């Protein structure tokens, strides 16, 4: 068989077409790359500081870059691919995605070293893509005359407020306001996670149980599908209203219990242990456990709030992110829904990273090689690097553009 050699310009054009064929093809790799590299820089290069952050708290830059940066890129890819699918409308592709990537990347330049003169520019860039997503979502809702996406709109608006609030707090040197904005953004993202998992779990579970798609053996409990994001929304109202620690703590416990209730969706027999399903229910389990522990901390129990925060974000959002990236990466490139061994290893590494990250918070005397968070950063980075190695050839191949099975 004779190999066909493409001229360099033709090869570049085909690569660009594949990269920008839909949102997840461009933004999922960006999210994985940023999420893998930022903690390694934060721990091993910057030693939990930032070289150009003198008047702002490095920890708040870290939160901004992980929540709005890494998870934000995944959100762009998810919504720009899922919304057209849910509304049966044409997908965004090509230049609009490159513009969104440029705005997202501009904000990340400031966060790379904590460059304070660019805080305002970075804030405007992040607000631009967040508000674009919100406007795009509302437009599709209006076009299809549906209210089914308004939960996403409300939580996306809350995330935009949190991102803007944190940048404003940085500019004003208001540390406490920055911490409130971080909590607000974390809760908003957990609500978005709950809505996304509610949408994804049913078709994925049915596909795992019956790959022929001839039947739909799994049916969720309709009354509990959106309970977790609804309680996250109520918690956001309490945060915005400045309610006491006790009130917010009990609401966190309630929201956590609702996420833990979602774990029951995995009770489908031995298939529940398959990585394709386990990633989804494990995401809910870790998000719920983190919320419950954080709530107990706010009600007065001697539990580390920061450890609980990382459990819900690194665990809940992180495992959820990896599961969604892996599932969509297969279905949107025409592959069967069977994770490669490298993907399963990546998930185990991420679980290990979460446990290693929270261990020093709950067991302060525990000795860990490489400092309190060194191994966690390495495991986390390796997990996402494995995902990139497995999925980048699929997502950036022009051969998979017309072979979607989702």
Order of helices and strands: HHHHHHHHHHHHH
Overall mean pLDDT: 92
Helix-strand category: mainly alpha
Q: What is the percent of helical residues?
A: over 70%
Number of strands: 0
Low-confidence residue ranges: 1-5
Radius of gyration over alpha carbons?
21 Å
The largest pleated sheet is described as:
none
Proportion in β-strands: under 5%
Total of helices: 13
- 3D shape: globular
Give the N-to-C terminal Cα separation. Answer: 32 Å
Which properties best describe this structure?
single chain; 406 residues; globular; 72% helix; mainly alpha; disordered N terminus
Descriptive overview:
With 406 residues, this protein is mainly α. The protein is 72% helix and 0% strand. The chain contains 13 helices and no strands. The chain has helices at residues 8-19, 23-45, 58-87, 95-113, 119-143, 150-172, 175-209, 227-240, 245-261, 275-298, 305-331, 341-362, 374-395. Helix 2 (23-45) packs antiparallel against helix 3 and helix 7 packs across helix 11. It starts with 7 loop residues before the first helix and ends in an 11-residue tail after the last helix.
């Amino acid at each position: 068989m004779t190999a066909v050699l493409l001229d360099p310009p033709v090869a570049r054009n085909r690569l660009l077409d594949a990269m920008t064929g839909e949102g997840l093809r461009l933004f999922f790799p960006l999210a994985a790359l940023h999420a893998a590299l930022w903690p390694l820089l934060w721990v091993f290069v910057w030693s939990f500081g930032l070289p150009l952050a003198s008047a702002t708290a490095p920890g708040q830059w870290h939160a901004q870059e992980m929540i709005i940066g890494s998870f934000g890129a995944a959100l762009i890819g998810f919504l720009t691919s899922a919304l057209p699918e849910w509304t049966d409308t044409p997908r965004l592709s090509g230049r609009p995605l490159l513009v969104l990537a440029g705005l997202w990347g501009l904000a990340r330049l400031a966060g790379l070293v904590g460059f304070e003169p660019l805080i305002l520019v970075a804030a405007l860039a992040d607000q631009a893509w967040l508000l674009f997503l919100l406007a795009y979502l509302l437009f599709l809702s209006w076009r299809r005359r549906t209210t089914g996406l308004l939960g996403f709109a409300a939580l996306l608006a809350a995330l935009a407020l949190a991102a803007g609030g944190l940048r404003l707090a940085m500019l004003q040197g208001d540390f406490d306001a920055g911490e409130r904005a971080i909590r607000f953004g974390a809760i908003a993202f957990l609500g978005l996670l709950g809505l996304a998992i509610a949408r994804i779990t049913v078709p994925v579970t049915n596909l795992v149980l019956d790959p022929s798609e001839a039947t739909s053996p799994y049916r969720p409990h309709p009354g509990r599908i959106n309970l977790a994001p609804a309680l996250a929304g109520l918690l956001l109202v309490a945060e915005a209203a400045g309610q006491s620690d006790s009130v917010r703590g009990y609401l966190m416990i309630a929201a956590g219990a609702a996420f833990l209730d979602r774990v029951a969706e995995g009770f489908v027999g031995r298939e529940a242990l398959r990585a394709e399903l386990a990633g989804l229910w494990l995401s809910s389990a870790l998000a719920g456990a983190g919320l419950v522990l954080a709530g107990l901390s706010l009600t007065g129990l001697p539990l580390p709030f920061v450890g609980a925060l990382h459990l819900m974000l690194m665990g809940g959002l992180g495992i959820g992110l990896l599961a969604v990236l892996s599932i969509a990466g297969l279905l949107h490139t025409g592959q069967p829904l069977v994770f490669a061994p490298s993907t399963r290893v990546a998930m185990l590494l991420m679980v290990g990273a979460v446990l290693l990250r929270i261990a020093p918070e709950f067991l302060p005397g525990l000795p860990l090689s490489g400092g309190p968070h060194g191994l966690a950063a390495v495991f986390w980075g390796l997990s996402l690097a494995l995902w990139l190695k497995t999925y980048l050839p699929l997502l950036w191949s022009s051969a998979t553009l017309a072979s979607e099975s989702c």
